[in-house]
Write a structure and sequence with these properties.
Layout lengths: L8 H8 L6 H21 L5 E5 L5 H9 L4 E6 L2 H7 L2 E2 L11 E7 L7 H14 E8 L3 H6 L15 H9 L3 E4 L2 E3 L19
Parallel strand pairs: 1-2, 1-4, 2-3, 4-5
Antiparallel strand pairs: 5-7, 6-7
Helix pairs in contact: 2-3
């Protein structure tokens, strides 16, 4: 199956329920945002600015505003359709550049659409953009086989083992679990058992 390259109105209608996504989608995202925010607060990682790469409808903007009302949010999106509708910055995990580094970088459900070389470049770019934490979520081959709801999950992606992503992320970040990774530039100092050992990252 070819990898999807078009993210238009039909794509978002098929997998998210249109421009007004399913309530369950926003509920799940709100729970996830609460977890990420609580863990970063516990670690002492400040969140003054956020970049959300592959931001979609921008649901994280509202979620994080509730936890960090003074933070600045930058939404980056490849989709022409969503950029026109919501005014996001056009770009991708591979090519987005900024003079600033960010306290929180979000890259959710994006990397699986990238070919190997582009995905490796994207992970290196996420590291360049980060001075704090990275939240990353990606569909792995294990997820597709064991967890994913195949009626609501896009199969037109690159399916790679989770270990493939872990190895490349671990070259730049410390794995905190739960999809959170910590940049060496972060002021947070997690205890040893709060982070995975490098060899199992």
């Amino acid at each position: 199956m070819p990898v999807r390259s078009t993210f238009d109105r039909q794509y978002y209608a098929r997998f998210y329920g249109g421009v007004r996504p399913r309530r369950s989608y926003f509920r799940d995202e709100a729970h996830l945002g609460a977890f990420v925010s609580a863990y970063l607060d516990y670690l002492g990682q400040p969140v003054r600015n956020v970049v959300d790469i592959g931001c979609g409808f921008g649901q994280w903007r509202e979620i994080l505003a509730g936890h960090y009302p003074k933070s600045r949010y930058t939404g980056v999106e490849r989709s022409d359709y969503l950029c026109e509708r919501f005014g996001w910055t056009q770009g991708s995990a591979v090519d987005f550049r900024s003079r600033s580094r960010f306290d929180l970088v979000i890259c959710k459900d994006t990397l699986q659409y990238l070919a190997r070389a582009d995905c490796e470049a994207a992970i290196a770019n996420l590291a360049r953009l980060s001075r704090g934490a990275l939240y990353v979520s990606v569909l792995s081959s294990e997820d597709w086989e064991q967890v994913a709801d195949r009626d609501r999950t896009d199969r037109a992606v690159h399916l790679r083992p989770a270990a493939w992503y872990r190895r490349r992320l671990a070259a730049h970040f410390r794995n905190l679990g739960g999809g959170l990774w910590l940049s060496p530039r972060s002021p947070a100092l997690p205890w040893a058992l709060e982070a995975l050992p490098a060899r199992s990252a």
